[in-house]
Amino acid sequence: MNLFLRELKVNRRSWLIWSVSMALLTIITMWVYPSIASEQSRIDQLISTYPKELLAAFNLDELSLADILGFYATESYTFVLLLGGMFAILLAGGIMAKEESEKTIEFLLSRPVSRSQIVSSKMMAVLFYILLFNLVQLLVAYLSFEWVKQGPYTVTTLLVLHLGAFLVHLVFASLGLALAVFIPKLKALTPLGIGLVLGTYFFSIMVRLSSKLAFLTYISPFEYADAVDVIKKGGLQPPYLAIALVLVAGLVATTYFFYNRKDITV
């Protein structure tokens, strides 16, 4: 538990910076919504001139900017997924790798604590901050909706959107933990983590551009919480939900298994 509290203390600044930055981005984005809604006909006319591929890439072929949920999903929710994914994978990877990277692992292992306890404490800290990050973003989104709404909207849909975001962030966090077991150098882990998030986001765009790339939907965690599925179909799709949970469980198990058997670099 002391290790858990230490990790909370060490990483609170990082959580604060990411959370505040994302919250401000949401507020600024939603502040524009009333202007967009009041110019619905002109906006629709302008969007109709865009290439179909561009509209599909950003879900503008399925969602309307005049609808507050559609506007949020296309203009802000994507950044919640993307920036939150970066935060999750960098937080998890950094927490797991820093002991070896900063040469403090020898001291930690000299304490009366097992390797599994080390992993568990670090995972708990990661889960705490990812959950807190998502709760902050949900609260900011809800308050922003109440501030700029032009009519009624379904709060449940907003909740499910952020539940999906939380799930995506868990996948990236689990990936970060597992990667850190094999790549305990922060200088190498950081660009790799960012690259994986951006790469899988690129996959999600490619899926929307070509039906021939449909198999990429299972590779990209961004597809597991697709805004169109939530808004148009009423929730997260069971196959994607199952894949996400299996991925999280498998990556967590991988982290425990290999961390307990690896040769620690001191």
Rounded to the nearest angstrom, the radius of gyration is: 20 Å
SSE ordering: HHHHHHHHHHH
Query: What are the low-pLDDT stretches, counting only 5+ consecutive residues below 50?
Result: none
User: Into which percentage range does the β-strand content fall?
Assistant: under 5%
How many beta strands in the DSSP annotation?
A: 0
Number of domains: 1
For the report, how would you describe the main beta sheet? none
Mean pLDDT: 87
Q: Any idea what the shape is? A: elongated
Helix content: over 70%
What separation lies between the terminal Cα atoms?
24 Å
Structural class by helix and strand composition: mainly alpha
Number of helices: 11
Folded structure, characterized:
This protein is 77% helix and 0% strand. It has helices spanning 2-31, 33-38, 40-47, 52-57, 68-101, 105-109, 115-148, 155-182, 186-209, 227-233, 238-259. Helix 1 runs antiparallel to helix 5 (68-101), helix 1 (2-31) runs parallel beside helix 7 and helix 8 (155-182) runs parallel beside helix 11 (238-259). The chain is mostly helical and 266 residues long. The radius of gyration is 20 Å and the shape is elongated. It contains eleven helices and no strands. The chain has one domain.
List the helices and strands and how they pair.
Elements: H1 2-31, H2 33-38, H3 40-47, H4 52-57, H5 68-101, H6 105-109, H7 115-148, H8 155-182, H9 186-209, H10 227-233, H11 238-259
Key terms:
single chain; 266 residues; mainly alpha; 11 helices; 77% helix; elongated
